[in-house]
């Protein structure tokens, strides 16, 4: 699936909580359209249609929390099943055209990986939205937004408050062991020439530990 213009799908789906954002988004797009020569009323109507379309995209977009597990995203299936799920185009023709330069024959039995399956039953989808809405408490927005803008400063405050220095040597030792194992593995790589191996080792030594 692709991305959305606004930061999260909830910006589109939770219209009450995001009324100001959607209004500002519409105003911004309308101003850009006018600067490009559009008439104000018709431009605003067209930009609202764009937002309505993006909202429909948001409705069928999986939230980030459902896309963290690679195994859950990995759906291997024959092309014929993909065709049944998404019949709006000929997937066999699409992949045949993509493979034309290497003369690769594509059959309905060809196995492909689909990372986004069609949306679940509408009742399950409604429940998902409710759960998502419940998870997005106001304090979560406050913490996330503040952390995005002042992340390093917040990190420094956190360190001063809870870090007493005893775990840093352990973390540094772990990092050094990883670096040492990496350099040891370099010696066993038969496909890498000495110049490249030396460069990789120098790169490993040049890594700065930000513990």
TrEMBL record:
Membrane topology: Single-pass type II membrane protein
GO biological process, one term: protein processing
Localisation: Cell membrane
Residues of the Peptidase M13 N-terminal domain: 1-117, 124-211
Main subcellular location of this protein, as a coarse class: membrane
One MF annotation (Gene Ontology) recorded for this entry: metalloendopeptidase activity
One annotated Gene Ontology cellular component of this protein: plasma membrane
InterPro entries per the UniProt record, alphabetical: MetalloPept_cat_dom_sf (IPR024079), Peptidase_M13 (IPR000718), Peptidase_M13_dom_2 (IPR042089), Peptidase_M13_N (IPR008753)
Family: Belongs to the peptidase M13 family.
Protein's recorded name: Peptidase M13 N-terminal domain-containing protein
Organism from which the protein derives: Diploptera punctata (Pacific beetle cockroach)
């Amino acid at each position: 699936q692709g991305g959305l213009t606004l930061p999260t799908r909830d910006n589109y789906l939770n219209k009450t909580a995001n009324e100001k954002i959607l209004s500002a988004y519409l105003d911004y797009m309308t101003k850009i359209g006018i600067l490009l020569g559009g008439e104000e009323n018709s431009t605003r109507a067209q930009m609202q249609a764009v937002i309505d379309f993006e909202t429909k995209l948001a409705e069928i977009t999986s939230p980030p929390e459902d896309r963290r597990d690679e195994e859950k995203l990995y759906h291997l299936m024959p092309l014929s099943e993909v065709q049944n799920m998404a019949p709006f185009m000929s997937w066999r023709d699409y992949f045949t055209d993509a493979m034309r330069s290497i003369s690769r024959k594509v059959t309905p039995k060809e196995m492909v990986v689909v990372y986004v399956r069609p949306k679940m039953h509408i009742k399950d989808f409604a429940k998902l939205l409710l759960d998502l809405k419940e998870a997005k408490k106001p304090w979560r927005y406050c913490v996330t937004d503040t952390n995005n803008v002042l992340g390093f400063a917040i990190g420094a405050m956190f360190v001063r408050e809870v870090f007493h220095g005893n775990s840093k040597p352990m973390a540094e030792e772990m990092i050094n062991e990883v670096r040492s194992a990496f350099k040891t593995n370099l010696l066993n790589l038969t496909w890498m020439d000495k110049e490249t191996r030396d460069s990789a080792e120098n790169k490993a030594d040049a890594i700065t530990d930000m513990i």
